[in-house]
Amino acid sequence: MSSGYSSLEEDAEDFFFTARTSFFRRAPQGKPRAGQQDVEKDKETHNYLSKEEIKEKVHKYNLAVTDKLKMTLNSNGIYTGFIKVQMELCKPSQTSGKLAPSSNGCMNTLHISSTNTVGEVIEALLKKFLVTESPTKFALYKRCHREDQVYACKLSDREHPLFLRLVAGPRTDTLSFVLREHEFGEWEAFSLPELQNFLRILDKEEDEQLQNLKERYAAYRHKLEEALSEAWKPG
């Protein structure tokens, strides 16, 4: 399988996607989420990393890379590298006009620099997927794996995804990124015509599902009636 590749620097047009499935577990209410704590630690670390520390981390990161997607450190201290972002767009986009299941998504690989922010990454992803909605309707999440649980933590627009990738290392089973619509109050960001269009799409898909369900039960009923008629035939 191939993952989508694009670059914020080169703006490549050719990219491919693969479908994946993910499952989320919420942290118990009343307890701080591990993902949020990690983000705060990363912010603090970012403020105190020297050029030598960054150089050492980039070196260790590249030694651990297994897919050739290494980081490059420039003489000015800025480094470039790759992040993989899973697209989970569960509401209909203005380009496709169809609902996509929230558990399925496409994996896209972006080539970015350490100066690129979350907001810039979101804009680049929406452009590559030809999504015309405003970037403010979407958020980039950091998915952290802790033992047998998975935590999803929303990142602020000013954070730097490549730095988070550097600190966590290249393993996506430890840290991964997900682009999703906002979870709370997201419908307020849409205009009235957009909401009406969403309702029409939902009505259409509901009718299709009901029709498929009726056809399935009609087929079951027909088979059952055939079985009953055979059982009641005189021997």
TrEMBL record:
- Region Disordered, residue ranges: 27-46
List the coiled-coil residues: 203-230
Q: Which UniProt keywords apply?
A: Acetylation, Coiled coil, Cytoplasm, Cytoskeleton, Microtubule
Q: Do the record's keywords include DNA damage?
A: no
Q: Where in the cell is it found?
A: Cytoplasm, Cytoskeleton
User: What sequence ranges are listed for the domain Ras-associating?
Assistant: 79-184
The answer on whether this UniProt entry bears the keyword Ubl conjugation reads no
Record's GO cellular component terms: cytoplasm; microtubule
Q: PROSITE patterns, per this entry?
A: RA (PS50200), SARAH (PS50951)
Q: Where is the signal peptide?
A: none
Q: Where is the SARAH domain?
A: 184-231
Q: Which InterPro entries match?
A: RA_dom, RASSF1-6, SARAH_dom, Ubiquitin-like_domsf
What is the recorded name of this protein?
Ras association domain-containing protein 3
Q: Which organism is it from?
A: Tursiops truncatus
| Top-level taxonomy | Eukaryota, Metazoa, Chordata, Craniata, Vertebrata
